[in-house]
UniProtKB/TrEMBL annotation:
Protein name (record): Major intrinsic protein
NCBIfam families reported in the protein's UniProt record: MIP
Gene Ontology, cellular component aspect: membrane
Keywords: Membrane, Transmembrane, Transmembrane helix, Transport
Organism: Trema orientale (Charcoal tree)
GO molecular function: channel activity
């Protein structure tokens, strides 16, 4: 068989695969898309990320402080309520901002999507700055409204809880963020949306539930970070030496977890590497 015949056969297989598909994978985003800086939609997305992260930190940290100021263990929302506050706010805010900015509200999510070439480096860096500023502002509002309890009850900051090692805490942050970012990839996968179109599952719902479940598991270990902006905002406003000493865990852990989730989804589940090698694409369902 000549090279021309092989080429024509490969092209025919590619066309057949496109016909069978009922979804379209968006092309990779340019690494440096400087043209974004000239678009109002880019700055509108930054504002959306800033406001969403501000609201997220305000409600969740206020919930944490409100729980801690209760003298009776049966009063207040309890740890279950705190987990619901974090998961519920993510559900609400992702639902509200997804159409504008993608509803990241988390530098680890932004980092994972950047690695998958779903956002440019320019947008990813700008998002992370907006998220961190929003987090600082949100925690600042909590301190302004609940100053005494905020200062005396830990400020809702993340740190390694007594009885756990830094290694254990780092592992908890890595696994927790893996669960979250993996859920984000799965919930927004165009292939899943087409295949399961008969199942009306709203993408923000599983993402919010992922945050809820991870908080149930890791609140006793680190207070649950899985969001560097959340941990950084609380650390800046509370400004405690112990919190700053442990801060690296809440950046390294989430970023490593996001990297692992992006690699797992893109190269194992979606087989992006295999798809790039034409001779190995024997199964159209991949």
């Amino acid at each position: 068989m000549s090279k021309l015949e092989v080429s024509e056969e490969g092209q025919a297989v590619e066309e057949q695969q496109q016909i069978r598909r009922d979804y379209v994978d968006p092309p990779p985003t340019p690494l440096l898309d400087l043209a974004e800086l000239k678009r109002w939609s880019f700055y509108r997305a930054l504002i959306a990320e800033f406001v969403a992260t501000l609201l997220f930190l305000y409600v969740t940290v206020a919930t944490v402080i409100g729980h801690k100021k209760q003298s009776d263990a049966c009063d207040g929302v309890g740890l279950l309520g705190i987990a619901w506050a974090f998961g519920g706010m993510i559900f609400i805010l992702v639902y509200c901002s997804a159409g504008i900015s993608g509803g990241h509200i988390n530098p680890a999510v932004t980092f994972g999507l950047f690695l998958a070439r779903k956002v440019s480096l320019v947008r990813a860096a700008a998002y992370i700055v907006a998220q961190c500023l929003g987090a600082i502002s949100g925690v600042g509002l909590v301190k302004a409204f609940m100053r005494h309890h905020y200062n005396t009850l830990g400020g809702g900051a993340n740190f390694v809880v007594s009885g756990y090692s830094k290694g254990t805490s780092l592992g908890a942050e890595i696994i927790g963020t893996f669960v979250l970012v993996y859920t984000v990839f799965s919930a927004t996968d165009p292939k899943r949306s087409a295949r399961d179109s008969h199942v009306p599952v709203l993408a923000p719902l599983p993402i919010g539930f992922a945050v809820f479940m991870v908080h149930l598991a890791t609140i006793p270990i680190t207070g649950t970070g899985i969001n560097p902006a959340r941990s950084f905002g609380a650390a800046v406003v509370f400004n405690n030496e112990k919190v700053w000493n442990d801060q690296w865990i809440f950046w390294v852990g989430p970023f490593v977890g996001a990297l692992a989730a992006a690699a797992y989804h893109q190269f194992v589940l979606r087989a992006s590497t295999v798809k790039a090698l034409g001779p190995f694409r024997s199964n159209p369902s991949n």
